[in-house]
Amino acid sequence: MWQGKKLIQVRQADHNFVNKTWQHYYLYEPNSHAPIALYDRDTGVQDIETDHLGTPISVYQHDTGETLWAGDFETYGKRKCQKAANQEDSSGQYDPKLRFQGQYEDKETGLYQNLHRYYDPHAGRYITHDPIGLYGGLNAYQYCPNPVEWIDPLGLSCKESVGESSKKGDVAKGDRVRHFTNSKGVQAIKESNMIKASDQNSVFTVKAKGKPGSPRDVEQQLGIGRGRANHIVEFDANSSEFSVVENPITGATERVFKGDVDLSNRNPTFKKNR
């Protein structure tokens, strides 16, 4: 069972509902696909320990602290080993089956269901091309160029797994992005305190780091029209809000927001690019 884009319930049973069955309900960090606990109808609440990427590595019984399951995974998610409290439990009841954020292991195929497509942890690649085409990057089957720091919860495009916010609208300190526009655009942004999505219903930004470069350099680097890099809007954001995408034309790394971006509580600054 899904709630929006998050898996919240899984049930296993044989076709006669006679043999061993189990049912899991998943709880996640706010604004994230990183799990924090699951509820099992037989054993109750279980706490999930994750690594820095939000991948489950241990499961504990909430009331006793007993370790029910532990797993070790290779860089691209292939399981190296696992152990469970009940080694005779062939049903896998203690394994949360959640892998990288947004992934659920299909026991029959060994593939990880990643919402929009399936991921093969043995190959470290998706088995089908990216549904959003080259907007997800030049390699349509690639998971992430850096699986130690990046995640792809939706199976569309990767993003940095840092600075997750406790609630929507909060922003992580030090995570700042830069949006380029023309004089008409910056005036509209100042008046509405909002960056309106346009092309592909998206707002395109880059990481706000160092000098931006001349307007002409930025236009060539990002493949935008003449005059659209004359003004800069910088603002705070958290990494759960945007996808990190490689520009299919220029190869530049961009941070892409879906829909309009409200600049409230984001400490926006406006500069003329020279």
From TrEMBL:
It comes from the Bacteria. InterPro entries: Rhs_assc_core, T6SS_VgrG/RHS, Tox-ART-HYD1_dom. This is RHS repeat-associated core domain. Residues 177-265 form the Tox-ART-HYD1 domain.
